[in-house]
Records
---
Amino acid sequence: MDADLLKESVLSYLDRSGGLLKLAEDCKPFNDPQQSEAVYRFCISVNPLDVMELDPLLGDCVLHDPLKATALFQSVCFLAIKTLSLIEKIHTESQVNIILKLTHLPPFPEYTLDLCAFNRGYRPMRPVAMEGLVIAMTRVTKYTQGARFLCTEDDCPGSTGFRHIRVHAPGATESATVRNDFSCMICSSPLKEDVKFRVLGDKQLVELIHVKALGNLSNNPLECYCFVSPLHIDELCNSMRIGQLYRVLGIPAHVHQWPNITWNLHEISKKFEALLKATGCSPWRFSAMVAYSFASAVIPPGLFNTLKLCLLLSLVQTRADATDTFYSLDLLVLTTDTLILDR
Ligand SMILES: [Zn+2]
């Protein structure tokens, strides 16, 4: 069997790289009898080059099919935990939550993600390296790493044990992990969360912009950067600083599900279409031009560009019929010259 051979390679990689010893160490804190958890989370360092040398098929899997690779490591780690009795109270494989941390990636262009391309909708589902400047970040907040659900039907085998374990997937929303409308895989009755088993973790969202966006600023009189890409930072909370350049390794994921912005193409004026066509060579030029000439009847073009861009973004983001103000973009403007702005 293909999978069995791959699992053998995982085991020998863990053995050679010291991963097994680390696993045994990481299991120790979980043996506190006071504590019961739905999932046990382990971060495993993986050097793709070493894996490639050991087993090219497994190496390929680690680099291009991270979900499958994680499942292989999960299976092997569960077996190791059971065989070596590392955690007594673990019951099922689904309680093992494995995070594969790649130490580096091959130095080829396909393993580097251009942040501009990411913004245009290109989202590879595999590890890539990204480089960008941090322009904003959220506070550190809690999220559910794993939860245990029980069947509400008393006679169902799903009403006890650890058959229904939900684990947070990178980029997923909280409601994908914890919700009250999941149903039992055995009898389809509603599931109820056993909250005392919930495992919480820290997360932080960081927005990166491409360095080129800054270059555009310095030789372009229009002050604008319109590129943002929220990153979900798990392990490195509070370790990044605004204004610094970072290289991040990870799988790009869609973190926020903003309502889709749609418009009717027929209502867009010819001038706008022409402008969009003419500025297609750069991802920032169109927004810059629009901001530049926005409200030119009251403000001379070129003044307060950043503010005008923010107003435009706010207009795009805020819909008249929106009952949910969560998605509105509120603006707070501080200035010494209120005369022009009042208009
Ligand atoms: Zn059931």
---
Amino acid sequence: MAIPGIGMLKGLAARALRLVMPHDGRDNSAYWRGRAAEAGSAAVLWRNATYNGLVREREFAQIAPVLAALPPGATVLDIGCGIGEVARWIIAQRADLRLTGVDFPEMVERARREWPHAVPVEWVGASADEFVRPGGFDLVLSSGCYSAIRDRAKCVRALEAGCAAVKPGGVMLLIDPFHTSKYLARVRMGPAEVIDRVQAQGLHCEHSGGILFWPFREFLSNSRWPERWLPGAFALGERLLPRLGERLWSDYKVLRFRKPLP
Ligand SMILES: C[S@@+](CC[C@H](N)C(=O)[O-])C[C@H]1O[C@@H](n2cnc3c(N)ncnc32)[C@H](O)[C@@H]1O
């Protein structure tokens, strides 16, 4: 029998551990491969499906203007595409785009199986640091992928491969929880370092912002908060963000870069 409150205690203990333990920067590929079997959006986001839906709305609002500006038939790389949730939305907006989704084989296998559109997608089962296609894409999108690579050396290789994959004139859009604080970091790398590393590859940063007010993200994303209260609490957090400072208070950073034409 489930003991009420035990989940909350476990959550608090896990948070306290994050504060006192050293940051775990070991390769975590096995963790993500295993998560591909989890139900619905919990495979790639959090346990609260309503919260995940609200996250998608915020995320899609960041991607929409970039998609709208792409030329007809443009090529898009969804790096770390997971089970294809973002890819589905992209093709629902723009069926003319040629999309490539890269993730571990367990993830892309599920994305392929559950793909609802007639439009074909190129699914590639590979690690982001090993996927090399220089100048192949008008848009390279990471929705939580680069930051999920906790091993810094591997994350840097993946980021550099992503930069190389952008065509001249093309865009790289990162919607990723980049943090230096041990408490929030997946890979321990802040947005300033990411911007420096991407700019060192010849792209320039056009926009730097953030979404998902992190104190609320921490407590709502895996909670069992009633569905009727959650959207209001989420919206309050997102309204607080620009007032308090997106750089400091957002969980997911939104970084947009462009590769100049020669
Ligand atoms: C937070 S999930 C986001 C998934 C997807 N982009 C979405 O928004 O639904 C992070 C994803 O990055 C993938 N990932 C982690 N490390 C990776 C790596 N080294 N190469 C490719 N994908 C990786 C995971 O398998 C997972 O699907």
